[in-house]
Design a protein that fits this description.
Structural class: alpha+beta
Number of helices: 4
Strand content: 25-35%
Oligomer: single chain
Helix content: 10-25%
Largest sheet: 10 strands, mixed
Number of strands: 10
Order of helices and strands: HHEHEEEEEEEHEE
Shape: globular
Distance between the termini: 25 Å
Length: about 230
């Protein structure tokens, strides 16, 4: 929500300010309104836009809220879904090059993680080798001091395609596979960097990363004032 600009909602009580200042505050808002259970990312995004309780996923709304954008911005105009498992990394590739935010739904349980970039073989750009992600389960359940936020960590996971099951697997993430890819387009009226100009700067600690091989390329969504850069292709 922060990267796309949709998280920066005007504060009706104080002109020129936002209700939320960064991704941590946006995440806390979801947590204060929804039960801690699994569900579809697009359902939560839709609620952020229109505030409607569609009651279609295990996670339920305990406190009414959301309804920040629709109207005048209909949610269905700003998101897409790729549900064909064999097309998962191709979808990540396309959405990244469009400059859109990317979420991966992964199974063998059920979880959603944010994808910030991917690696590929430069000799064969369609041969994908890994993804960079942030995971809301990092530090989940940790005891924090009042006002303390867990560290922001960017992790790298290799990917492997199984032509028999026609799925993309994450061998170092419990051998889970990518079930679907969702994307949220940035706030309209400029490219993502312009629409998110009010974003706070965040630096991600990079974990589980091995140096890129000489034949690997890298594509990442660029942070406005952070550590990621758009490199390639």
């Amino acid at each position: 929500m922060e990267w796309t600009g949709w998280g920066f909602v005007d504060n009706p009580d104080v002109a020129g300010t936002n209700i939320f200042n960064d991704a941590d505050e946006m995440y806390e808002y979801f947590g204060a309104h929804w039960t801690d259970d699994y569900g579809g990312t697009d359902v939560a995004w839709r609620w952020w836009f229109d505030g409607i309780d569609y009651d279609i996923i295990p996670s339920i709304i305990e406190v009414a809220g959301g309804a920040f954008w629709d109207p005048p911005y209909p949610f269905d105009d700003y998101w897409e879904l790729e549900a064909t498992e064999s097309n998962a990394l191709e979808a990540v590739d396309t959405f990244m090059h469009n400059g859109w935010a990317v979420q991966l739904s992964i199974k063998d349980g059920g979880h959603a993680i944010t994808c910030w970039g991917y690696t590929y073989d430069t000799a064969d750009p369609d041969y994908y080798t890994g993804v960079y992600v942030t995971d809301s389960d990092d530090n989940h359940g940790d005891t924090l001091e009042p006002g303390e936020q867990p560290p922001d960590r960017l992790r790298y996971y290799e990917v492997s395609y199984d032509s028999t099951t026609e799925k993309w697997y994450l061998p170092n993430y419990g051998d889970w596979y990518i079930r679907a890819v969702r994307t949220l387009m940035p706030f309209p009226g400029g490219d993502c960097q312009d629409s998110c100009r009010k974003s706070s700067s965040k630096d991600f600690g990079l974990l589980s990363h091995t140096s890129l091989l000489s034949n690997q390329g890298l594509v990442c969504l660029r942070q406005r004032r952070g550590v990621l850069a758009l490199a390639s292709a």
